[in-house]
Queue: 4 jobs
Job 1
Amino acid sequence: MAREHARVFTRIWSDLDWRKLPPLEQRLYFLLLSQGNVTQAGVLPLQVRKWAKGSDYTTEEEIAATLASLAEHRFVVVDEDTEEVLIRSFIRNDGVLKIPNVFKAALKAALTVESPKLRKALAGELRRLRRKDANTVADELFPIESVTHPEPIPNGSRTNPEPVKDRDEFPEPRGEGEGEGEGEGEPLAGGSVGGSRAPASTYPREAPPTEQRPPAQCRKHLGHTDPPPCRGCATAREAAEAWDAQQRHAHHDARSAEARQRAADRAAAIANCALCDPAGYIGTQLCDHDPDATARAARGRALVEAELAARRTTATQETT
């Protein structure tokens, strides 16, 4: 049964990370949250074309860029290969836990997810609930034992008080906001879509400091296809990923500016037009805001009809 409403807590507007999002990202988040085909686990199919039709002012390119930004800020997780999207805090914030049967349905829905990336994120979300049934499903989605470490762990003989997370595993947000409430803690490394946090304070939305992408390996291992674990390579990789994130932000901001300018131009044209309604239509036809268009079209039809009449007269004279 399709959902008929979406749950949004009023505390979302006090969430620092949510307030850092640009308006386009906030709007897209609400659009995703209110889709009728969101599962109880917070997963829905990747349907950029459909979402672009939610407003006459958005395009597929703008939706795709905005979705990538939401993923970088960790409000959603996206897998283009399996065409799945996860609203990451859905289970915690949509009232799923309050109804036992609904939560059971959410656990079943989680097990149907195909994307390894989404399964890993869901496993992390379920473990945050500290419930035995949620932990069981989390272990099936993404066992903790499957986490590997690229570098040796100091004092490996000691027993860790909790499982050590790898570099790409989803960290647990600190806040209670509708989105994620990451707080003002130290930014995490990494730039893969949906796999890391990239708030504005981490990657400024401005031109990258260098024109070329920095190498993702240290000088010692530059060009190696399978370098050994190396802290220098880890630092270089983080710098390269930061550069990539800046590039994506710059591209997204440019596209957003273009979209806002087009919307402003269209709104101004509608406001200055005496022919169309406030939506820019004349009946069911999109208005071109040209007051001479009707008269010009009539003149054109008259010229065409006169030319056809002249040809018919000439043809008749030639046959007689």
Job 2
Amino acid sequence: ANRGCAEAFAAVYACEVPVVAAVRGFCLGGGIGLVGNADAIVASEDAVFGLPELDRGALGAATHLARLVPQHLMRTLYYTSRTVTAAELLAHGSVWRVVPGGRLMAAALELAGEIAAKDGHLLRLAKAALNGIDPVDVQRSYRFEQGFTFEANLAGTAARVRDTFGKEARP
């Protein structure tokens, strides 16, 4: 599962052309890994984003959440397993547009069409250039995070936390 997640996230990031993500409803855990590696995000008004990993005995995708929100908000969301709305991500500049659910695909395809209208060779060079100047190597960083999930599993912590998930009321 860890390898599959890493490979899926890497495929989005390494795609030689820009990837536009269309998000409706819950975008949690692995969804954050996918949209955090996308080049642009269009979301429906009901979209919520977050990492419930700590509540489920796991770690990971903070690398990708950090691409969507500022550092301290990312840490708060990660430690609390809380979510943020598409409107909040729009305010942070992470989401290109928030639209009614019925307009989601049209809005995403409109943006993708605008991007795809550019010269293909130049667009591929632009994607490679932007990935090349990224301040964080998302593949290495995510694999580093996964090591801590492995450690939590070996220690029995992950199973203990998973067993209590949903049984305790939050403060």
Job 3
Amino acid sequence: MISSTSLFAPVDSDLRLLTDNLKRLISARHPILGAAAEHLFEAGGKRIRPAIVLLVARATMLEQEITARHRRLAEITEMIHTASLVHDDVVDEAELRRNVPTVNNLFDNRIAVLAGDFLFAQSSWYLANLDNLQVVKLLSEVIRDFAEGEIIQSLSRFDTSLSLAAYLDKSYYKTASLIANSAKAAAVLSDAPSTMIESMYDYGRDLGLAFQVVDDILDFTSPTETLGKPAGSDLVSGNITAPALFALEEQPLLQALIEREFSQEGDLEQALALVQTSDGIERARELANCHARLALQHLDCLKPSAARDSLAELTSYVLSRLY
């Protein structure tokens, strides 16, 4: 399996600088908010989203050094991502993320919601200070998409009539929007040609969709220790993802179990077994593969460089998490 460390070699020193800066940027006036936010940045995330911003910056600048605005955009991207995770954990009543206690578990829901709000507000302030209206619009759209994704997910719990298109829309709002719009914003800050800017958006969108589908597969196939949260937690909460959606087409009993919200003893175990014995996981893998291949094609507009190679390898890395 490709490691994210070797993958991000072209921006390794940029990412080290980013981690130091993030802790400095979020030092809040109130120590508890600062502690909550710092806990998140210490929680061992792979920094995939800011790495993509920095790689797109390097791939579109080539001979020139990336700018302070590119670096700040990468920091804003990680802040927005982290804020969304905090709110996600509150909504999902999660106790663990990356095998580390969540902010709502460590402090309480009220502090967690405020910590998330604080990070969104901080990111918006730094975003405004980039003085680039197009970039402000792109990243503001992401924050709106996160909220929309959460609302759609909450309203469609245990809804077995969810279509694949609606699932992909929700996956775009919750995951792909940030990757797509921040990659596009990095190209905007590089003054790249408009066709290249759009290709970076398309790359981020398809990579983000592949990433989310893989995450949804891992929820059925990975043990809790690997996942950093209980396996099958999506289905328990009524969040019907690609493997279950495909399984529903061939397992009528699964529909009944979901619709009665696993209210009888053994319902959940039976539902998980039905997904495992169906073609659902295999078909979800094909869906992830399809989006990863599309993401790779969108890089054709970039000239050869180490950063472009890393962006290309990322499409394989996302899929390699399955094996």
Job 4
Amino acid sequence: MTNGEMTHDLSMMGLFLQADPIVKAVMALLVLASIACWAVVIDKALLYRRLGQEVRSLTVADPAALSGARDARDEGLAARVLRAGGREWAEGRDEAESRGEFRDRMERAMRAAFTGGLRGADNGLQLLATVGAVGPFVGLFGTVWGIMNSFSSIAQSQDTSLAVVAPGIAEALLATAIGLVAAIPAVMAYNRLALRLGRLRADGIAAIGGIGATLARRGGPQIAHQRSAA
């Protein structure tokens, strides 16, 4: 391929190959950022689907199963939360402990297990937010740099024909286009995933509150034993 052909190659690959090294670096960085964002989106979509199933399990859980019958080998989030509540319930309610205090003790144990299970669930969302906020400006930097080089080349060649001006400007604008392609999905995915994670937290805490209320009404094994003895 001759230099003349390269100059007039307005395909995306051609524009990339003809671009200034700094503009190439900007484009490559944005493409890599976009790939990383999509990897985060896919990973979090699968993770949040699994967490959603765990939270639904908490919502429909039978509090009677908290007596320790849960399989200790089950490492799911719902199982860990129920085991944490079951340990507190199995200890029973102290004579000086009110029903509200007993409930609060169980709920605190379950909330701690639930929070621990969600730890790290927001990892990667920061990348989406960063790319969404910074991506267009990085692309704009590449565009400005490319247009500056184009004007410099025009001044040196003293030729302002469209055939000479268009390729350089197209190369520069491609950087902005790639920045937008990386940023727009990142912003949309961040908003969607952050909302989903917030709902999972809220639903999980609500389910824990319902389990705690049910168990507090029943009382612990010690209370039940005292009632049967009486």
